[in-house]
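Reviewers of the previous submission asked for a worked example of the structure-prediction workflow described in the proposal, so we include one complete record here. The input consisted solely of the amino acid sequence. No template or homolog information was supplied to the procedure at any stage.
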Amino acid sequence: MLLAFDLDNTVVTRDRVLPPEIQRAIFAARTAGHAVTVLTGRPPASALEFVERLEVAPGPYAVNHGALVYGRGGEVLKHRRLQGDEVRAALEAATAGQACSFAVIEGEVLHVNDARDPRWAWAHTNNREVRVADLDAIHVADKIVIASEDAGPRMDAAVRTQLTLTSYLWDDGFLEFTAPDADKGAALALIAAELGVPRDDVVAFGDGMNDVSMLSWAGRGVSVGPYAPDAVRDVADEHIDAPESLGVAGWLERMLHDH
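From that input alone, the workflow returned the following structure tokens.
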């Protein structure tokens, strides 16, 4: 069996802690013969700490919502990025000339239109560089993050009428875009093929909108925690508690006991 885990709010708490009970349960599952992978919206640098602690590195695993997938030896199996003209077209369609705070993420660099916006302050605490965006100088990007507030659905629809991108509309007022085929479902299919695990033997765990494609693709999908929206719960086969309540650990312990 292949066990595929999202990180934040799935195995990592809202305080960014990996509970040792969850870590031990994942190790026990691996010792019992199950494969383990991680698929996260985090970029490579901030994902690495948890990927290493779960002993998934050098791979396979996926970051940037599945846009970047590493193989068993750490080689890049897939890397889907937005082209500069797509970035500019998406921002033009989404904002429609109205003032709006955004970040274009390229590796560990955030190109922002307002460096004083407190919504990007977290980047400094994660040792990421924040620059004032020069959109004409951006040739490729991993994703676009727009502080959409209540305009998210309108912005999403406006971009979709012009471009074929992958989008994620979050409850906290952010809208994200990645390249086509840059999603966790496609990444998980690639990882399962890399490991030779059939789809029916894949179990995926996640809590966010970027996990919908992964939970839908897996043979069994498990939604996690109280913050999982209906769209996530609706595609899952079952629901478990948040990492603060050791939901994943309990599920794995029951699975290993039953087998």
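The two ends are 12 Å apart (CA to CA). We consider this example representative of the routine output the project will generate in years two and three.
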